[in-house]
C-alpha cells in the first residue's frame, strides 16, 4: 500500500497532477508497466478527527528517516439507516480511540471517508481508520484485546457495520521529492532509464555510465536528477556509490564556474580506496546556470549552504560529510559551522575564512572580460542561445588554477581541457549572480567555537593559500585541525592529484 497525503483533493483534477498520467510526461515504460499490474487507487477525505500520541513521529521529517512504523488500516462500509455514521463517529470519539491509546506503542489514529471524487465516479461510500504504532507495540496484547472486545464494539459490529476489512502494514519506504533508490539499480536485471524530459536518468551496475566501483571492471549504480529549491532554482545532482540506503553519505561541493565533473577522477580513486562503502552526492551549485526570476535574493554563502541542506532533505539524508573546494570550500566550512546537526564532518579545500576586500573588484574585472567577448551558446534543449563565459576568461582562469608543472604532464592535459570547457560554457548571467557569494563573508568569529570533526586541504602551488589556510587550521576549534598540503597541485587538487586527495579524505573519514 502506498499512501500520499495531500492538502487539497481538487489538485488531483488539475493539470499539475493530471499531466503526470499522460503524454508527454508519462513515459512508454510507465504505460507498459501499468498494464501489467492492478492498481486499486482510492481517494479519501479526512473527517476532521485525529488523535496524536506524545511519542508520535512525523515520518516525512528527514530527522525520522529510518524510523520504523506499523500501520493498521481498517475499512468499513455501513448498513443503511439514519444515524449510522454518527454512531460510528461517537464510538471512536468516546470509547475506541481512548482504549487504543492505552495499547503500548500507539502513536496516532486518523479517520477518513471516501472522497467526493470517487463518489462522483460511482464508487460506494467507505470509511477508513488508520492506526499507527511503534515497531515494538502491544498489538494482540491485553490492552488491545480490551480495546476491541467491549460491548459497544460488539454493538457497532452487529448494528452499524455492513462489512469490515483489516490489514497491518510495516513501513517500507518514505518517498522524497528526488529519486535516491540505488538499491534497485544493483540488480543485474535493471536497465537504464530516462524521464521524458531527460532531466532524470538511472544507471544500473550493467551500464557503462554507472559509477566507478571498488576496482577492476566493477561498477556502482548511479542516479542523475535534480531538486528544486524553495526559491525555484533547479540543482542537478548525481548520486552514486553504495546501494545501501543507510550507507554514509559524502557530499562534494564545486568551485565556481565548473560542474560536478571535476570530481570524476577523485571518485574513481576514492571508491577503490574505500571499497565503495559511501554514497557520493555531487551537484551543480547555483550559478552554473542562469537563475530564474523567482530567485530574487542575492546569492550568498548562506544561500549556497541552504542549498546543501535542501539536497540532504530532498534525498532524506539525516547527516553527511562534505568536501568542498574554493567557493565550495567556503560553503563546506559554513555548513559545518552552521549545521552541526546535519554535517558529520567536513574538509574545506583551497578557500578562505573571509572574503578579501579585493574580491568584488577582481571578480568584477573578470566578468567584464567575459562580457566583452560576448560568447553565446545553447546550454539546453529547451532554450535558445544565451551568453556564456567564453574562451578568453576560461583560458585566464585555468592558467591561474593549475600549476605550470601540470601543463607539462601529458596525462593531465585532457583533465585541464575539460575544466577549461566547463568554465567556457558556464552561463554568464549565472556566473554574474553566483560570484556575488565571494564578495562578502566572514567566518572567523565562529571558528573558535567549532567542536566537530574537520580538516583543511590546499594545493601547494595555490598562491598564498597554503599560508592562509595554515592559520585557518590553527584557529578552528579548541586546538586546531589538520591541514593537508598537496604537492604538485594548484587550486583544484582533486583534478591534478585525485588519488592523493582521495587518500587523505578516506583516511580522514575513517579516523
Automatic annotation (TrEMBL):
InterPro entries noted in UniProt: AB_hydrolase_1, AB_hydrolase_fold
Alphabetical list of SUPFAM superfamilies matching this protein: alpha/beta-Hydrolases
Ranges for region Disordered: 183-218
Pfam families linked to this entry: Abhydrolase_6
Domain named AB hydrolase-1: residues: 251-503
Biased composition (Polar residues): 196-205
Membrane spanning stretches: none
Signal peptide: none
Family, per entry: Belongs to the AB hydrolase superfamily.
Protein name: 3-oxoadipate enol-lactonase 2
Source organism: Trematosphaeria pertusa
Amino acid at each position: 500500500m502506498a499512501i500520499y497525503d495531500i492538502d487539497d483533493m481538487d489538485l488531483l483534477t488539475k493539470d499539475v497532477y493530471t499531466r503526470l498520467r499522460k503524454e508527454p510526461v508519462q513515459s512508454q515504460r510507465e504505460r507498459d508497466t501499468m498494464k501489467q499490474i492492478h492498481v486499486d487507487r482510492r481517494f479519501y477525505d479526512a473527517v476532521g478527527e485525529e488523535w496524536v500520541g506524545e511519542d508520535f513521529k512525523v515520518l516525512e521529517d528527514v530527522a525520522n528517516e529510518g524510523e520504523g512504523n506499523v500501520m493498521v488500516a481498517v475499512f468499513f462500509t455501513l448498513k443503511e439507516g439514519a444515524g449510522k455514521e454518527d454512531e460510528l463517529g461517537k464510538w471512536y470519539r468516546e470509547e475506541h480511540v481512548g482504549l487504543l491509546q492505552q495499547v503500548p506503542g500507539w502513536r496516532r489514529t486518523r479517520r477518513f471517508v471516501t472522497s467526493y471524487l470517487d463518489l462522483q465516479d460511482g464508487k460506494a461510500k467507505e470509511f477508513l481508520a488508520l492506526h499507527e504504532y511503534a515497531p515494538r507495540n502491544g498489538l494482540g496484547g491485553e490492552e488491545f484485546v480490551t480495546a476491541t472486545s467491549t460491548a459497544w464494539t460488539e454493538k457497532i459490529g452487529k448494528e452499524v457495520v455492513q462489512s469490515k476489512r483489516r490489514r497491518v502494514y510495516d513501513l517500507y519506504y518514505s518517498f522524497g521529492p528526488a529519486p535516491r533508490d540505488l538499491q534497485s539499480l544493483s540488480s543485474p536485471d535493471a536497465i537504464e532509464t530516462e524521464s521524458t524530459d531527460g532531466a532524470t536518468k538511472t544507471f544500473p551496475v550493467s551500464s557503462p555510465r554507472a559509477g566507478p566501483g571498488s576496482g577492476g571492471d566493477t561498477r556502482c549504480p548511479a542516479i542523475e536528477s535534480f531538486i528544486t529549491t524553495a526559491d525555484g532554482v533547479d540543482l542537478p545532482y548525481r548520486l552514486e556509490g553504495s546501494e545501501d540506503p543507510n550507507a554514509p553519505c559524502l557530499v562534494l561541493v564545486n568551485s565556481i564556474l565548473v560542474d560536478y565533473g571535476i570530481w570524476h577522477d577523485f571518485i574513481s580513486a576514492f571508491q577503490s580506496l574505500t571499497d565503495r562503502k559511501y554514497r557520493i552526492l555531487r551537484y551543480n551549485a547555483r550559478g552554473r546556470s542562469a537563475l530564474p526570476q523567482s530567485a530574487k535574493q542575492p546569492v550568498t554563502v548562506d544561500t549556497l549552504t541552504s542549498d546543501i541542506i535542501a539536497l540532504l532533505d530532498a534525498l532524506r539524508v539525516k547527516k553527511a560529510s562534505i568536501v568542498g573546494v574554493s567557493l565550495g570550500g567556503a560553503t563546506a566550512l559554513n555548513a559545518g559551522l552552521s549545521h552541526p546537526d546535519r554535517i558529520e564532518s567536513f574538509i574545506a579545500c583551497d578557500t578562505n575564512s573571509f572574503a578579501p576586500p579585493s574580491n568584488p573588484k577582481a571578480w568584477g574585472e573578470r566578468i567584464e572580460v567575459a562580457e566583452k567577448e560576448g560568447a553565446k551558446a545553447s546550454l539546453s534543449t529547451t532554450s535558445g542561445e544565451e551568453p556564456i563565459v567564453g574562451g578568453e576568461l576560461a583560458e585566464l582562469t585555468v592558467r591561474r588554477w593549475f600549476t605550470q608543472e601540470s601543463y607539462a604532464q601529458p596525462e593531465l592535459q585532457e583533465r585541464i581541457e575539460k575544466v577549461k570547457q566547463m568554465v567556457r560554457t558556464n552561463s554568464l548571467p549565472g556566473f554574474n549572480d553566483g560570484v556575488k557569494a565571494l564578495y562578502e563573508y566572514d567566518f572567523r568569529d565562529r571558528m573558535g567555537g567549532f567542536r566537530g570533526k574537520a580538516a583543511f586541504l590546499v594545493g601547494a602551488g595555490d598562491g598564498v593559500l597554503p599560508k592562509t589556510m595554515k592559520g585557518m587550521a590553527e584557529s578552528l576549534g579548541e586546538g586546531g585541525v589538520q591541514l593537508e598540503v598537496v604537492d604538485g597541485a594548484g587550486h583544484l587538487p582533486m583534478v591534478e592529484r585525485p588519488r592523493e586527495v582521495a587518500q587523505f579524505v578516506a583516511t580522514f573519514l575513517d579516523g
